[in-house]
C-alpha cells in the first residue's frame, strides 16, 4: 500500500528545498523546475501543495520569520532594556551565512508585495509584532534609566524598524553599510541622543 503523503510535511520539504537553493545559488536559481528537482518531486506536483510560486516564497518568508522569532526569544531570556534590544537586532540583521540567506528570502518576499496585496497582511503582522517588542525594550530602558524619560518611543521604534528593513535590503544589494560593524554604528547613532548620562 503506498504511503500517504502528509500535506504539511510535503510543504515543509518544498520550503526547505527553496531555502537550500537560495542559500546555494540565489533567488534567481530557485525556478519551479529547480525547486521540484531539489525537493525530489515533479514540477506539476509542486502545485498540489502551493497555489503558485509566490505562495512558496510566502511560506519561506513565514519560516524565516518564525526562526527569527525563536532566536529573539532565546536571546532575550534574562535580558531587558537596551541589552534585549541589542539581542533582538542581532537576531534580525544579517551578520552570518544563515541570516544573510534569510535577508535574501525576506527581500524576495517584499518584491512580491505589489503584485500580491494579500501578502501585505503578513508583512504588517511582522512589523506590528517587532514594533511591540522594540517599544517594550525602549520603555524598559527608560524605566532602568538607560534612556532619558523624554525618549520618543513611538518615533524611535519606527526608525529602528525602518533601519532593520533597510539593512536587510542593503545586504542583498551587497552594500558595505550591511557590514556588522556599520550596522552597529548606525543603531548606536539612533539611540545615542536618548542615552542617560
TrEMBL record:
The superkingdom listed in its UniProt entry is: Bacteria
Q: Which InterPro entries match?
A: BetI_C, Homeodomain-like_sf, HTH-type_TetR-like_transc_reg, HTH_TetR, Tet_transcr_reg_TetR-rel_C_sf
Q: What is this protein called?
A: TetR family transcriptional regulator C-terminal domain-containing protein
* Pfam families, sorted: TetR_C_6, TetR_N
Q: What are the entry keywords?
A: DNA-binding, Repressor, Transcription, Transcription regulation
Does the keyword Transcription belong to this entry?
yes
DNA binding happens at which residues?
Answer: 31-50
* Protein species of origin: Microbacterium rhizosphaerae
* Transcription regulation is among the record's keywords: yes
Q: Locate the HTH tetR-type domain: which residues?
A: 8-68
Amino acid at each position: 500500500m503506498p504511503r500517504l503523503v502528509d500535506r504539511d510535511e510535503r510543504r515543509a520539504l518544498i520550503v526547505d528545498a527553496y531555502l537550500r537553493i537560495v542559500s546555494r545559488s540565489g533567488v534567481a536559481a530557485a525556478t519551479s523546475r529547480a525547486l521540484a528537482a531539489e525537493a525530489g518531486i515533479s514540477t506539476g506536483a509542486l502545485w498540489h501543495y502551493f497555489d503558485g510560486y509566490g505562495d512558496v516564497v510566502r511560506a519561506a518568508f513565514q519560516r524565516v520569520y518564525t526562526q527569527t522569532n525563536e532566536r529573539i526569544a532565546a536571546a532575550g531570556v534574562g535580558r531587558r532594556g537596551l541589552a534585549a534590544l541589542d539581542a533582538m537586532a542581532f537576531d534580525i540583521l544579517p551578520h552570518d551565512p544563515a541570516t544573510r540567506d534569510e535577508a535574501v528570502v525576506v527581500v524576495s518576499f517584499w518584491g512580491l508585495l505589489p503584485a500580491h496585496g494579500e501578502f501585505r497582511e503578513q508583512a504588517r503582522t511582522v512589523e506590528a509584532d517587532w514594533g511591540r517588542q522594540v517599544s517594550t525594550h525602549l520603555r524598559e530602558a527608560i524605566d532602568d534609566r538607560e534612556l532619558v524619560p523624554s525618549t520618543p518611543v513611538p518615533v524611535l521604534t519606527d526608525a529602528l524598524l525602518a533601519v532593520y528593513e533597510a539593512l536587510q535590503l542593503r545586504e542583498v544589494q551587497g552594500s558595505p553599510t550591511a557590514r556588522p560593524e556599520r550596522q552597529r554604528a548606525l543603531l548606536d547613532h539612533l539611540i545615542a541622543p536618548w542615552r542617560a548620562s
